[in-house]
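During the reporting period the student researcher (J.K.) took over the structure-prediction task from the postdoctoral fellow and processed the backlog of single-chain submissions. One of the processed entries is reproduced below for the supervisory committee.
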Amino acid sequence: MKPDDKIYQDYLSILQEELIAATGCTEPIAIAYAAAKAREVLGARPESCMIKASGNVIKNVKSVVVPNTNGLRGIPAAAAAGIVAGDASRKLEVLGIVSAQDKTRIQNYLETHPLTVEPAVNKSIFYIEVTVKGYGNEATVMIQHYHTNIVCITRNQAVIYQSHSETDDKNGLTARDCLNVREIVDFCESVRLEDIASVIGRQIDYNSAISAEGLENTWGANIGKVLLAAYGNDVRTRARAAAAAGSDARMGGCEKPVVIVSGSGNQGMAASLPVIEYGKELKSSRDKLYRAVALSDLVTIHQKTGIGRLSAYCGAVSAGCGAGAGIAYLHGGDYDMIAHTIVNSVAITSGIICDGAKPSCAAKISAAVDAGILGFNMYKNDQQFISGDGIVTKGVDNTIHNVGLLAKEGMRQTDQEIIKIMLNQPQTANSK
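J.K. obtained the following C-alpha cells:
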C-alpha cells in the first residue's frame, strides 16, 4: 500500500477521526457538550433545562461518575456541569478544566434549578437533545449518531444551524466499509511512521497515564489491582490489569483525558494498553509498537462498524480482540496469524452484554483482553475455531460481519430489556 493510494489516505482519516481525546465517559460528556453549547447559544445561564436522550445514552450515563463534579452521577449532573463550567469549544474535553469554585456551583445549580429528563421519541440509537430556557428565550442543541455530531441548533424556535448528516449514517465521516483485515495488516506494515506518530503517540501517552493512576490509587472496584494481587505479574496479567485499571479510574470520574476508539474511552484503552504492555515485555521498537497499536485500533473499528456506536453488545469484546491482533503483530504475526487470532477471540467472548458505563466495565475489559491473548496463543499452538463453530464462518471478515448482525439486529430486544431493567432498578449505595 502506497501513501498516495486512496485506501491509505482513508485509513489515515479513520484513525484521525476516531482517536480523539475525551475527559470522562463519552456519553455524559456528550450531554455536557450539548448543554454547554445550548447555554452559549442562549447567551446566559439558563433558568431551566430539559434533556431528551435515547435509551442507550440513558443507559450509559446512569451509573458513571461525571468528572470534575465531586462525584456526581447521571444526566442532570452532566447537563448541570456543562451549563455551569463547560467549554463547548473543547468538545469531548468540555469538562477538562473546571475550577474548585465551579465544582461547588455545579452542585448548587443542580439543587436549585429544574433539570428534567425524558426518553427521546425516535428510532435513533444515539440521540441527545438539550433545551435551555431563561429570561424569555430558549435554545436547543441536538446531537445524533455520534458524540460530537451536532445536527441542529435553534434559538427561539428559529433554526440557526442544520446539518445534512441528520439522516445520513456516514455523518460526514470517512466511509468505514473500506476496512478489511488483509488491508488493515497491509496498511500497518507499510504506513509511514510520521503519518501516525501524532495520533498513536498521544493515545499511548494519555492512556498509559490514566492506567498508572488506576493502579496507584483507589478507583471503582480496583479491578487492575485485584488482577495483579490475585494472579501475579506476568505479562498476560499486566496486560489485562493495565487496561482494567484505566477503566477503573475513568469510570470512577478521574479527570485525566483518554484517547477514545469508536466513541469509547474504554475501547480506546482496551485496544492500546495491552499492546503497550507486550511491547515493553518484548522490547519492541517504537516503530513496531506504533504499528501494532494502529492495527489494534483499526481491527476494533472494523468490528464496531457493523455493530454500531451503542449496542447491547459490549464494545470491550471488540477492543480486546483488537488487542489480541496487535499482540500477534508484535510477535511477528502475518495476516494468517492475525486473522486466526481475531476469529478465535471473537468466538470466545461474543455475547457479553453492555449494561451501561460503570465500575464492572473494567472486569469485562479484563475478560475481553484475556480472550484476545488466548486467541493468539491458540494459533501458536496450532488450534483454532473453524467455520460452523457457532457464529464462526469461513473468512475473518465474514465472521466479523456475523458478529455485527448478532449485535445490531439479534440483540435489539436484549438492548431494550437491559434498558428497562436499569431504569426500573433502584439506585443503592450497596448491592448486597
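The committee noted the following: Residues 428-432 have pLDDT under 50 and may be disordered.
J.K. will present the remaining backlog at the next meeting.
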